[in-house]
Specification:
The chain is mainly beta. It contains twelve helices and 57 strands. The chain binds alpha-D-galactopyranose. InterPro entries: A-galactase_NEW3 (IPR018905), Aldolase_TIM (IPR013785), CBM6 (IPR005084), Galactose-bd-like_sf (IPR008979), GH (IPR017853), Glyco_hyd_98_carb-bd (IPR013222), Glyco_hydro_27 (IPR002241), Glyco_hydro_27/36_CS (IPR000111).
Length: 886
């Protein structure tokens, strides 16, 4: 048989094995999901040994240690910027003067464990020394310091496959002989659920969490389907907790913690434990929620139902019960429901339902449901059996006959139902509905009943009137049912119901989405830009400018009401150039019930826009979602460029030419305008004309049409004269259209011509930002500047200059160069005309926000001139505008 062995050996060498991790004999840690604290979410690089000591103290004094939180994890930035003479990692001497061993001793003395951080790269994500190629030495140091956990990150990977890099560290840790928990942090980029469990004890499944609702739910969505990979000793890690960091409401934090507990996520608090509120402390130490997370069977919870915004997540427990989170991620309150059977519980006459946040215990015959406010949740453990003194489970719900959306002035019907889901019946039920101030509510019939039995809910109807002058947005309609139980303590009880409606008006005709108000806009950072990027600058994707568009920072969810009246949504999607070729984003267009109508793959910063053209016929509400891509949400400046919706109804598009005019006082220029009827119905009594400011004159008749069919156009042109005494500066001249729609309404539309009135004697005006920039010179926003912008970073090197060309004068000769600049102190700018010798212009000022003016003489030639502004040795002033006067 020797030949067979030889043949097998040859085959083993020739047939490449699929890439997979070697099985490292990892230490048996983390039978249940690890719990602890980590410095990153709250403190970033602003950490030191006092913070770590105080946090260890706080873990003990707050009761968190007793609740199970064990690891005190120092994230990035603990290490000195250089390795020591022996080539070893060393602690930052300023921030951690006592060293890591001393901290480990301190933390151990408190009965806690110490975690540390490095990256499987040439540097950490914050640019500190990291462990790629130093695995053995660094692991030895961590063991020598008596560290108990290593969070191993993925930045600066040196182009080496992740599995290789993480295997090297797992083996190095193993070789130390010290049991060190390995937390794999490669952001879910290489499907770590397939291999990281062989090496470590937990692995990140996504990019970084941010302290934002949108980020939390985006991460939640990425957990679906991963439940089968986790179990004792190997956990999916949807990233650390943000509870208590201030960027979400307490309702949202409660959902975050409930869901993370159910997902068997490592519960790693990320807030300042030294100063947390009592409410946050109580939330983090809820023993029953933690018990679900730490259940020894280690079966991860997963989503069992999803009807758009309403989700049910469930987890089987080792004692035969089931934990459940009823979750409402929508903008309006709603009932979320499941049943004992759907939770996988065996058939039984009745079930105990324990609310883990209120501590209330009730009994149900099978239904498990509750009314849940927007972004809220309820978390229960459901088991077979009946408590000694059963109190029946009840549910209050608010329904309207509106599909959730109402118009100003509308009257609608709201029904409050009160149901009993367990035994025995309840008595003296009374329901009430509350409306926002200024709204009226009238009950239509009874609001109470003496007895409510299971299967026969009591319903009360109300007529609700929305005021005519109401703002748009979400309005709550809270309800309440009060009742008495026969059994139990017989006390009066109360069950809330969370109803809401959204005041919205459906768009008509073709519209830019950036001209409409969204119903909700949850964004990953800052506020959504409309026709501007999130930095307030013009939108650009791979160099292409977009005058119109939406710029939400991913992860984002922005919803518009369409009222089933629209047919198409179109946009060019990509990452804004403001992210400087960084950032990775995905785009998803969702219809009602979160149905995906269109989606892109991952789009990177610097890539050309992808055009979307989506059929939205019959869609009531359109949701535009951007995801954070495979890495974290840094630089994820997602843009829906030229986002447009085509809807039924009248619509026009007006354009005017030129879009910009520069003219002296007393001068006359020509403007032409054009209107396209681009809606789905004819428009009548159409009129188009410039509407000039007082004192200006417009000659030429308004363009008029009695009726325009869809696709019809109307055009006109006019002579506009600026009064001789007009003040210099920018003036907006609208070319305005009015018309009558078929429903009798009289909408208007316009396009604007920007007129720059030159001061007397001025023959040419140029905004600095219109010039050619060299080197580090940059355009920046400046509220007090003409055109709202200036050029900064001029000088301090020959490369950093500004050139203004196309300065046209009629005659050769000496002119006055009027320079609007900004500076605090005194600086010089050098001026060179048509490549000639440089003249120094010394300027002084008090502010980089408000321009000042100086005048110098320059010699120009007849026709086109070019002027260069620079300073080869020192910084120059910022420049706002340049004018030439005779
Ligand atoms: C990455 C990780 C974060 C954090 C930072 C530190 O972004 O995913 O959790 O550790 O690095 O730089």
């Amino acid at each position: 048989m020797r030949w067979l062995t030889t043949l097998m050996l040859i085959l083993a060498v020739l047939v490449p094995l699929p890439a997979q991790a070697a099985t490292v004999d990892k230490p048996p840690l983390a039978p249940t999901p690890p719990m602890g604290w980590n410095s990153w979410n709250k403190f970033r690089c602003n950490i030191d040994e006092n913070l770590i000591r105080q946090t260890a103290n706080a873990l003990v004094s707050s009761g968190m240690k007793d609740a199970g939180y064990e690891y005190v994890n120092i994230d990035d930035c603990w290490m000195a910027t250089q390795r020591d003479a022996a080539g070893d990692l060393q602690a930052d001497p300023v921030r951690f003067p006592s060293g890591i061993k001393a901290l480990a001793d301190y933390v151990h003395a408190k009965g806690l464990k110490l975690g540390i951080y490095s990256s499987a790269g040439t540097a950490t994500c914050q640019g500190r020394p990291a462990s790629l190629g130093h695995e053995r030495a660094d692991a030895r140091k961590f063991a020598e310091w008596e560290v108990d956990l290593l969070k191993y990150d993925n930045c600066h990977d040196g182009g080496i496959p992740a599995i290789e890099r993480f295997t090297a560290m797992a083996e190095a840790l193993r070789a130390t002989g010290r049991p060190i928990l390995l937390s794999v942090c490669e952001w879910g980029a290489n499907q770590p659920w397939n291999w990281a469990g062989e090496l470590g004890h937990m692995w990140r499944t996504t990019g970084d969490i941010a302290d934002r609702w949108g980020s939390m739910v985006a991460i939640l969505d990425q957990q679906v389907g991963l439940e089968k990979y986790s179990g004792p000793g190997r956990w999916n890690d949807p990233d650390m907790l943000e509870v208590g960091n201030g960027g979400m409401t307490m309702t949202e934090y409660r959902s975050h913690l409930s869901l993370w507990a159910l997902l068997n996520a490592p519960l790693i608090a990320g807030n300042d434990l030294r100063s947390m509120s009592e409410e946050v402390r109580e939330m983090l130490t809820n023993r029953e929620v933690i018990a679900v997370n730490q259940d020894w069977a280690g079966v991860q919870g997963h989503k069992i139902s999803d009807s758009g915004d309403l989700e049910v997540w469930a987890k089987p427990l080792s004692d035969g019960g089931a934990a459940v989170v009823l979750f409402n991620r929508g903008a309006v309150g709603a009932e979320v429901a499941t049943s004992a059977a759907e939770l996988g519980l065996p058939a039984a006459p009745a079930y105990e339902v324990r609310d883990l946040w209120s501590g209330q215990e009730t009994v149900t015959l099978g239904k498990v449901r509750a009314s849940i406010p927007s972004h809220g949740s309820r978390m229960y453990v459901v088991r077979r059996g009946v408590p000694a003194k059963p109190v029946p489970a009840v549910a209050t719900a608010v329904r309207t006959d509106t599909e959730g959306f109402v118009k100003p002035g509308q009257t609608f019907a709201a029904t409050v139902s009160f149901a009993v889901d367990g035994l025995p019946a309840v008595l003296a039920a009374e329901v009430a509905l509350t409306a926002p101030e200024g709204w009226t509510i009238r009950p239509e019939g009874r609001t109470g009943t003496p007895v409510v039995v299971p299967g026969r809910p009591f319903e009360a109807r109300f007529a609700v009137k929305v005021p005519g002058d109401v703002r748009k947005g979400v309005f709550e309609l809270p309800a309440r049912a009060t009742y008495k139980t026969v059994a139990g303590d017989g006390a009066e009880r109360e069950e809330p119901g969370y109803g809401s409606v959204i005041v919205a008006e459906a768009p008509r005709g073709s519209q830019w989405l950036s001209d409409l108000d969204p119903v909700t806009a949850d964004v990953g950072f800052g506020t959504m830009g409309r026709d501007r990027n999130i930095g307030g600058n013009p939108i650009r994707i791979a160099g292409v400018p977009y005058g119109k568009g939406l710029a939400p920072h991913a992860a984002s969810e922005v919803t518009y009401y369409l009222g089933r009246g629209c047919t198409r949504f179109s946009a060019d999607v990509g990452v804004d150039d403001g992210s400087r070729n960084r950032g990775t984003v995905t785009f998803h267009v969702l219809g009602d019930g979160r149905e995906e109508l269109a989606a892109t793959g991952v789009i990177k910063g610097g890539e050309r826009a992808t055009s979307l053209d989506v059929d939205v016929s019959g869609v009531l509400a359109l949701t535009l979602v951007t995801g954070i891509g495979p890495d974290n949400n840094n630089n994820d400046h997602s843009v829906w460029g030229a986002a447009r919706i085509a809807c039924a109804g009248p619509s026009t598009t007006v354009t005017a030419t030129p879009t910009e005019v520069e003219i002296g006082a007393g001068g006359t220029f020509e403007v032409s305008g054009r209107l396209v009827a681009d809606g789905t119905e004819p428009i009548t009594d159409v009129r188009l004309a410039p509407s000039a400011p007082a004192g200006w004159t417009v000659s030429g008749q308004a363009a008029q049409a009695e009726r325009l069919e869809p696709g019809g156009t109307l055009a006109g042109s006019w002579q506009v004269t600026v009064p001789a005494g007009a003040d210099p500066g920018a003036v907006e001249l609208p070319v305005a259209a009015t018309y009558r729609a078929q429903d009798g309404s009289t909408p208007s539309d316009s396009a604007t011509v920007k007129v720059l009135v030159r001061p007397a004697g001025v023959v040419a005006v140029k905004e600095a930002e219109s010039g050619t920039l060299g080197g580090a010179a940059r355009v920046s926003n400046c509220g007090a500047c003409s055109g709202g912008k200036k050029v900064g970073n001029l000088g301090n090197g020959a490369a950093n200059h500004l050139t203004l060309g196309a300065l046209t004068v009629a005659d050769e000769g000496e002119y006055r160069l009027i320079l609007d600049y900004l500076v605090s102190g005194t600086r010089s700018v050098f001026v060179s005309v048509n490549g000639g010798p440089a003249a120094e212009v010394r300027v002084s000022g008090t502010s980089f926000a408000v321009p000042a003016t100086t005048t110098v003489k320059v010699a120009l030639r007849a026709g086109v001139n070019e002027i260069r502004f620079f300073n080869d040795t020192a910084f120059g002033p910022d420049l706002d505008r340049v004018m030439l006067a005779s």
